[in-house]
Amino acid sequence: MQYNFDIQIDRSQNYAAKLEESLLNFGTKEVIPLWIADMDFRTAQPIIDAIKARADQGIFGYTFRPDDYFEAVRDWQRRRHGYNPDVKQMAFAPGVVPSMRIFLNLFTQPGDKILIQQPVYHPFADIVENSNRTLVVSPLRRDDSGDYTMDVADFELKAKEGVKYFILCAPHNPVGRVWSKEELKEIGDICLRYGVGILSDEIHSDLVFGGNQHTVMATVSPEIAAITSTFISPSKTFNLAGLQASTIIFDTAEHREHYLKTLKEMDIARNNCFSLVATMAAYNEGEEWLEQLLTYVEENMQFIGDYCRQYLPLIKPNKPEATYMCWLDMRELKMGDDALQEFLVKKAGIALSQGSSFGQGGQGFMRLNAACPRSTLEKALEQLRAALS
Prior knowledge:
Radius of gyration: 21 Å
Structural class: alpha/beta
Strand content: 5-15%
Shape: globular
Number of strands: 15
Order of helices and strands: HHEHHEHEHEEEHEHEHEHEHHHEEHEEEH
Largest sheet: 7 strands, mixed
């Protein structure tokens, strides 16, 4: 079927976090909320139908995840990414970030070093520091054209100093890179050399466009697969974050069993009947919707780039290879981070994610969520243009 991503949906009636939390984060709700990473699009119709059918049963008791659930995850990975994971290595997770926190609590000790590459999704640093582990940062490199690469020499320098785990963001949020197999192998081999385990956040792996191809870290080599746990979810792909359903593909059976034991102790191993049917419908029947979404989001990115070149030349948006996040270089506006945030909120009436929250290299940047109707983007950019003029 043909989907219409131009439809404006009133989210004020469903307690959307991007609206309700604007007051907490920006001091007002009178902004266009382009900050938090969820879409303003209705999800694929097969998912809606599956949830409605489940709701019509009228019973919402404890839910068991059958083999079909994990086979749907496996089959999707095989079709989209050439990855054929063993379902016996999989486990349900309530979300990527919570499950990473559980993983660190189970398999590391307070004070252990955890390596990340900033600027990067800020909860990575949060879960490390909040669990009393030691944060180690290897900054990404940005060249004059705005392209980001890994600083391999610095990464090795940090990794060999007793790092326990490396948290990989692939594709990368917020800079939008799709790492090549060669890049992944280079850092994966470093991790092998120094006994560093890998937690690979691949939640954006389905949101790749422009002819790019995501490489699953665990497919780079059997040796790297043996030290890599992969974290995936349909939540970003199909706008299902509120259903809280993710999957971990573990590096070892021992880690999986220990993790499952902990989930049972917390009594969160089998809940949320809607996430079960939504995940299966997404992976089994959602591909048509996704292909249309990718075209629309890529065109949104092109629109942002064209608009800035014509009307906002001091703002330099990237052209992401993946995700629906646009990384805006606003350094030529010559404002400090707090002043820039205040200007955007109070003068332009738009709420973006502050680049400095993503760590080293984020100062002077803003992250914009482009997964919305084009008319919303146009209004936001016109308000920004008016404010700057």
